[in-house]
Every structure is written in structure tokens, then in C-alpha cells.
Amino acid sequence: MVRSFTRLAPVLAALCLGTSRLSSALPSPAASDDIASLLLARQSADNTSASGINTNNTADCTNCTNLGNFANPIPVSSLDPVVQVRNGSYAGITIAPIAAEATLSGFGTNGTQEAFLGIPYAQQPVDELRFQRPRSLNQSWQDVRSAKRYSELCFGVGTDDDYQPPYVTYKLGERCLTLNVVRPARQDEASKLPVFVWIHGGGFSYGGSGDRRYNGSFIVDKSVELGQPLMYVSLNYRVQTLGFPVGDEASQAGVQNLGLYDQRLALHWIRENIEAFGGDKDKVTIVGESAGGASMYFHLAAYGGRDDKLFRSVIAESAYYATGLDTANNTASRNDQWTSLAQYAGCGSNSTLECLRSVPLETIKQWSINNTELSIFNPVVDGDLVAKDLQQSFLVGDFVKTVPVVLNNNLDEGISFGVRGVNNTADIVSALEESQALPDGWSTQDALRSLAQIYPDNEDVYPPFQAGAGLLPATGGVLGKNDRRSCAIFGDLRFVGPRRQATELLARSSQAAIYSSRFDQVSYKSPITAGAQHFQEVAYVFRNPLDTQNALGPLRKDIALANEISAYWISFVASGDPNTARDQGKLSDGALYWPKYDADGERSQVAWVHDGLGHRSFVTPDTYRQQGMQLLMALRSGTFKPSDFHSSHTKRDEL
Ligand SMILES: *[C@@H]1O[C@H](CO)[C@@H](O)[C@H](O)[C@H]1NC(C)=O
Ligand SMILES: *[C@@H]1O[C@H](CO)[C@@H](O)[C@H](O)[C@H]1NC(C)=O
Ligand SMILES: *[C@@H]1O[C@H](CO)[C@@H](O)[C@H](O)[C@H]1NC(C)=O
Ligand SMILES: *[C@@H]1O[C@H](CO)[C@@H](O)[C@H](O)[C@H]1NC(C)=O
Ligand SMILES: *[C@@H]1O[C@H](CO)[C@@H](O)[C@H](O)[C@H]1NC(C)=O
Ligand SMILES: *[C@@H]1O[C@H](CO)[C@@H](O)[C@H](O)[C@H]1NC(C)=O
Ligand SMILES: *[C@@H]1O[C@H](CO)[C@@H](O)[C@H](O)[C@H]1NC(C)=O
Ligand SMILES: *[C@@H]1O[C@H](CO)[C@@H](O)[C@H](O)[C@H]1NC(C)=O
Ligand SMILES: *[C@@H]1O[C@H](CO)[C@@H](O)[C@H](O)[C@H]1NC(C)=O
Ligand SMILES: *[C@@H]1O[C@H](CO)[C@@H](O)[C@H](O)[C@H]1NC(C)=O
Ligand SMILES: *[C@@H]1O[C@H](CO)[C@@H](O)[C@H](O)[C@H]1NC(C)=O
Hints:
Elements: H1 9-14, H2 29-44, E1 82-85, E2 88-91, E3 93-95, E4 113-120, E5 144-146, E6 153-154, E7 172-173, E8 178-184, E9 193-199, H3 217-225, E10 231-235, H4 240-243, H5 248-253, H6 258-273, E11 279-289, H7 291-305, E12 313-317, H8 335-344, H9 352-356, H10 361-370, H11 390-395, E13 405-410, H12 413-417, H13 425-435, H14 445-454, H15 483-509, E14 514-519, H16 538-542, H17 556-575, H18 580-583, E15 604-610, E16 616-621, H19 626-637
Parallel strand pairs: 2-5, 6-7, 9-10, 9-11, 11-12, 12-13, 13-14, 14-15
Antiparallel strand pairs: 1-2, 3-4, 4-8, 8-10, 15-16
The structure holds 2-acetamido-2-deoxy-beta-D-glucopyranose (11 copies).
One 2-acetamido-2-deoxy-beta-D-glucopyranose binds next to loops.
């Protein structure tokens, strides 16, 4: 039985479709992708009507900042900062303090910094190395190489990669397996700075480290101000068609999950080389959001939870399990899509991988642009790095148990992912069935009864929580009487439930401290009905004052919250304890103490918010919609028992 193309779609397609059109009826899987995609497009573009696939940015990109060091090196000068890594030396750039007036939020940086951009951490995956696991670098050189520009982003398709002037004009390509290092000026091997490693999101379908929303200068500056200086590293990994080949041939060749192997190799490179920059290889924290958050789960669970000592702590923002990962048992269901690509490229032979290595990127690009709705180019169980489904890995305890972990989700994740245009339980159940987020056969009478009782038909109690009661406004002409309820269910199933379950399981069996938080702020460019949705916390974590699609903005409440959140993140990266800056009196009076998560006790988590009217971040029990999330996680893992659930009266004040 060939399974639906869109099995993984809602979460992932939502993150990867660039264009959108709205359906007026109950969305088909494809249409529901489009709705979610529209929402994301809205959050990531000021002007969605101007968005569209950029068919130019694998080629000319005259004004792009990420032209890289391979073909377009900026000449090296004797004044440049230089580091000597294992293979040879690199010259970086000096970043003068950034003027406050140059930014939307009205602050800049105080200290001079140095950055080394576009440094390859692997052999570039071109020609015969395309569709291969990444190969370690094996050459050295004597001269000083230029590391002064972000490399091209790994080719992908989706909102972050679209051409959306004036913000996004990134060059995409294959010579992308690079990383960037940003540090306070004048460090040496004795500095031993803690290292903040950022792994971007984008549904494993798009995105890249050169994205200005991931500009590390401002968090590095804050770390200096707090007396806990750190080094920022961001990296690219292959995404979409080139990063996650599917089907039997890829499975047999062992070339699935390439993007995850890229990340892993980058972490090895960091361990081998970061001391040369003044970093401490034993103080590496990996941080990621969305697909980057899911990547945090993959690394915690990698190789059955083996501790390779690549990181000493983890921050997972809006991580997800998504739907059950494909396994060797059903990889054949993806053969049709792979064959479609091969045929388009004129690769009729039975070694399509071999043939596809020799076609121009342009050919793969043209096919990929038209086939984003498939959203199938994603991680699978490969029996190697990915030993099993993520939820199963957590449930059976196959994860690294020695590292502190912070897990954050946003209050209204579901607003980004709920299927819209639904009016009642039956509509929601159909949408769940079509999403294939739950295993076959989940929708028994008992399960449906529990779902309807635990998530009652009452729009007043669901996200977006700060938008008052009642129906959500129509989205693109579609008005559903149960859209908020749908957003709650989809958000809990895909993001909030997995976050809570992973937090509980980590807290119960890890030897290290586990911390949880929830981001409640409606950000500057979000309408109140979009809530504190997916991705919104990123600008606050980065304390990024630049004008972007998700800008922090100029309001004092947002700047105060950014200073607060970034201080807890920096403290955690610097010391493994998010409270260090607060304990040292570096934060304002009344700055909260962030307790460890006790799954069988208080279940305390931080809710991040500054409303400008005196309402500030607070500690709160992580118990809202408890029965609902337990139900959804039980349904997902196939362990639902009706007797575990009784009718629950969801109330707004559970928050
Ligand atoms: C929900 O109701 C709206 C109008 O009230 C209608 O347009 C829409 O088709 C309904 N949705 C479904 C799935 O029937
Ligand atoms: C959005 O883009 C369209 C077409 O490119 C343009 O006409 C319009 O002025 C833009 N609107 C804004 C608010 O920038
Ligand atoms: C792509 O390039 C063509 C020709 O160079 C140009 O006409 C078109 O406007 C460009 N499109 C975008 C989105 O930049
Ligand atoms: C590139 O930048 C120059 C100078 O700002 C501008 O004149 C030109 O139109 C830009 N080109 C594109 C394709 O955006
Ligand atoms: C090049 O660097 C890589 C990554 O650190 C290292 O594993 C490899 O041994 C180096 N090779 C040479 C020849 O320097
Ligand atoms: C420099 O740091 C001080 C606090 O130490 C801060 O008040 C000021 O805004 C910072 N300047 C910039 C440009 O960020
Ligand atoms: C480096 O590895 C590539 C294949 O991955 C190989 O073709 C090349 O010969 C190697 N170079 C050296 C210097 O070992
Ligand atoms: C961050 O953005 C500022 C302003 O555009 C720029 O000067 C700086 O070089 C950027 N920092 C990094 C690390 O890219
Ligand atoms: C594949 O199917 C076999 C036979 O049904 C089953 O025993 C095995 O657990 C399945 N493997 C995975 C990874 O699902
Ligand atoms: C293609 O498959 C056939 C039989 O299935 C086999 O005989 C042949 O060697 C294969 N060719 C290649 C290039 O793998
Ligand atoms: C992509 O779709 C467009 C519009 O339907 C079509 O003109 C074009 O030929 C398609 N390209 C590929 C590679 O399928």
C-alpha cells in the first residue's frame, strides 16, 4: 500500500511551502499544508504577496552577503585576526561596535568582535560526493585562507529561502557545509570560552546560518556585558532533496538523513578545532529551534543515546517528534517520488543516485520547486544515527543522560499548525486522519470519546490565549467554528505534548538538571490573533535588533524581555545553570529564579512575558491541558487505554 505523499506534511510542509492558496472547504492534506504555510509565510514575510520561489538565487546573487570563500574570497590583510585550525590558517573579519542608530530596536553592540565566516567543516558535497554522507576534511595548506563571508545556504525550498526584498537575498547552493564563529575580539587558546552552537530550523527543507535573524553579534555582546563571555558558532547542513534522499535505493546505499550526519560532523569539527579560536571544547551547548529543535532530540538520542561527548548541554526550542518516522519497512512508499525526480533528470537507470550525482543542481532545483508539497525529504529511522522513532527513544530512555537540557515551546504553537476551516469534532478527526500524524487505527470509539471530552467544543478556552474569547477571524476567507480547538489539538500533538513528554522523561532519568519554559509574548510584527506562535522567541533569544521578518522591534517591553531571555540562555551556555546572571545580581530586581523541572513534583516552568504594564515573566506549573497532552501522546505511541482518561473540564485559567 503506497502511503499518502503528505504523511509528514502538516508540520513540515508548513515550514517549507513558499506559496499558498486557501481552500474554502475542509482542507485536503495539501490544502491544509497551504493554510499552515500561509501562516508561516505571514510570520516570516512582511509582504506575502511579494513572496514566491526565487528562481534566481542559485545563480546570480550580486547583492547577497553570503557569497562565500570558495569562489569569491575577500582578500586577506595583515590586520585580520587569524586562527590556525588543524588543516591550516584562516583570516577572519573584525566587526566594529554596531551603532545603535543602525538598528530597528535602537541598540547595538559595545565591544569589538571578530568573526570567521564560511569555514568548511567537511568536503563540499558536490559531484561524486552529492548524496553521500559528509566526508571529513583531509587536506592541509600553508597559506592563510579567507573566512570573511558567509557561504551559500544549502539549497532548499521554502519561505526562508524565497526572494523577499529587502530582507532575504541569500544565495543557495551545494557548497554549503560550512560554519561561522563569532567571538569577542582578542581571544586565544587560553580563553576557553563556552560555545553556543546554533542549528537552524526550516522543516529540514530550507534555512541557513547566514540568515540575519541568526546574527550572533548581539548575544555575544550581551555575554560580555554579563561577564560571561561566550563564542557563537552557527552551521549549515543539507536540507530537502539533497539532504534527505528517500526510497529504497537511498536506504540501501546508507545515504538517508544526510543533513543530520552533516550536523554531527560539524560537531566533531568543533570539538577538534574550537580551541584554536579560544573556545572550550568541553563547554559546547547545542541550541536549535523547530527542525533545529528536533535536531536536538536527534542528537540526544543519536546512536541509541550514545554519549559521544560532542556537547555538554542542550537547548531545544519548539522541538517536535512530528509524525512517526519512516522506517526500512515503508521506505518503498517513497520510491515513486524518487523515481519522479530521477525521470525528470533523465536518470532512467537503476542506479539513480549515481546518475543524479552528475546532473546540474539546476535540474534538481526545478523538480524540487514543483514538488514541495510532498515534504517527504525528512529524517527517517536508518538504524544508525537514527535508531528509532524519537518518541520511542525517549519512552525507552535511549538518550544521553548526563547533560543539562532546556526545553522551550511557545504558548500558541498551534496557531501556526492547526488545520483551519473546521467546525466540529468530526471535521477535526478528519483533519487528524488526513494529517497521518497518528498511527493507523488510532480513532477507536473510545479514543474519539476521550478526545471530544478532553478537548471540548468551546472556542473560549483555546489559543491564541491573549486574544480574548470567541472565534478566530477568518483566515483567507475560511472561518471555522472550531479553529481554535483545532489549533490546540494540533499544537499539543505536534509541539507542546512532545515538549512536555520529553521534559518529563528527561527529568525522571537524567543525572543532570532539566529546565522547561514557555514563551508567551506576542511579538512586534504579530497580530494578537497570531498569538505567541512558532519562531517568535528567536529574535528574543538572539536579542537581535535588526529589522527582519520577525523583528524584535522598538518597544521597551520586547527589548526588556530579550535582555532577560538572552541572559538566562547565556548563563546556561556559560555554566549549565540558567540562573547564574540572576544569582550574580546582573539582572534587574525581581528577576526570577528558574527552578529545575521536577516531573513528579512542582513541574515548574518559566513563562516568558513582559507586557509593559507590569506583567513580567513568572514561574508556573506545567500542567495546562494535562489530560489532553497525555491523551495525544498515548495515541501517538499506541498506548492509549480509555481507563486512563476521564472527562476533564478544560478551563482558560489553567494557564
Ligand atoms: C465550516 O463552516 C463554514 C461556514 O460556516 C463552511 O464554509 C465550511 O465549509 C465548514 N467546514 C467544513 C469542514 O465543513
Ligand atoms: C507588497 O508587494 C506588492 C507586489 O510586489 C506591492 O505592490 C505592494 O506595494 C507591497 N506592499 C507592501 C506593504 O510592501
Ligand atoms: C530573476 O532574473 C530575471 C532575469 O534575470 C529577472 O527578470 C527576474 O526579475 C528575477 N526574479 C527575481 C525574483 O529576482
Ligand atoms: C544591488 O545593490 C545595488 C546598490 O544598492 C542596487 O543598485 C541594485 O539594484 C541591487 N541589485 C539587485 C538585483 O537587487
Ligand atoms: C583536517 O581537519 C579535519 C577536521 O578537524 C581533521 O579531522 C583532519 O585530520 C585534518 N586533516 C589534515 C590533513 O590536516
Ligand atoms: C552598551 O552597554 C550598556 C550597558 O552596559 C548599555 O546600556 C548600552 O545600551 C550598550 N550600548 C549599545 C550600543 O548597545
Ligand atoms: C580526500 O578524500 C577524497 C574523497 O573523499 C579523496 O578523493 C581524496 O583523494 C582525499 N585527499 C587526500 C589528500 O587524501
Ligand atoms: C550582524 O549585523 C550587523 C549589522 O548588519 C553586522 O555589522 C554584523 O557584521 C553582523 N554580525 C555577524 C556575526 O554577522
Ligand atoms: C518491520 O516489520 C517487521 C515485521 O512486521 C517488524 O518486526 C519490525 O519491528 C519492523 N521494523 C520497524 C523498524 O518498524
Ligand atoms: C540494473 O538491474 C538489473 C536487474 O535488475 C541488473 O542486471 C543490472 O546489473 C543493473 N544495472 C546497474 C547499472 O546497476
Ligand atoms: C513546474 O510547474 C510549472 C507550472 O505548472 C511547469 O510549467 C513546469 O514545467 C514544471 N517544472 C517541472 C520541473 O516539473
